[in-house]
Amino acid sequence: MVSLQARRRRKMPYERITDLPESVRSNLPKHAQEIYKEAFNSAEEQYGEESRAHRVAWSAVEQKYEKNERGEWVEKG
């Protein structure tokens, strides 16, 4: 397990939305990408598990966005 101090010294995985995986950048609107980035970074810092951080990030996006009938991510409303 990675110590809290070691995690704090590490650079955040995604500093900019352009650092996000292609699958995220090509499917989500800019605001949703920002949500994903912030949620991923927070979860990765808290849990230290990349796969868990991705699940948390997608869950955060799904709180505000949903897919429409064309399969595009749109803000809930």
Question: Could you give the topology of this structure?
Answer:
Elements: H1 4-9, H2 22-25, H3 30-47, H4 50-64, E1 65-67, E2 73-75
Antiparallel strand pairs: 1-2
Helix pairs in contact: 3-4
Report what the structure shows.
Helices cover about 55% and strands about 10% of the residues. It has 4 helices and 2 strands, in the order ααααββ. It has helices spanning about 5-10, 20-25, 30-45, 50-65; strands at about 65, 75. The protein has one domain (about 20-75): Orthogonal Bundle (Rna Polymerase Sigma Factor, Chain: A). The N and C termini lie far apart (about 40 Å). The mean pLDDT is about 90.
**What number of structural domains do the residues give?**
1
- The CATH superfamily appears as ChaB
- Structure classification: mainly alpha
Largest sheet: 2 strands, antiparallel
- Residue runs with pLDDT of under 50 for 5 or more positions: none
CATH topology: Rna Polymerase Sigma Factor, Chain: A
> Order of helices and strands, N to C?
HHHHEE
- What is the 3D form? globular
Strand order of the largest sheet: 1-2
List keywords for this structure.
77 residues; mainly alpha; Rna Polymerase Sigma Factor, Chain: A; two-stranded antiparallel sheet; 4 helices; globular
Characterize this entry briefly.
The protein is mainly α.
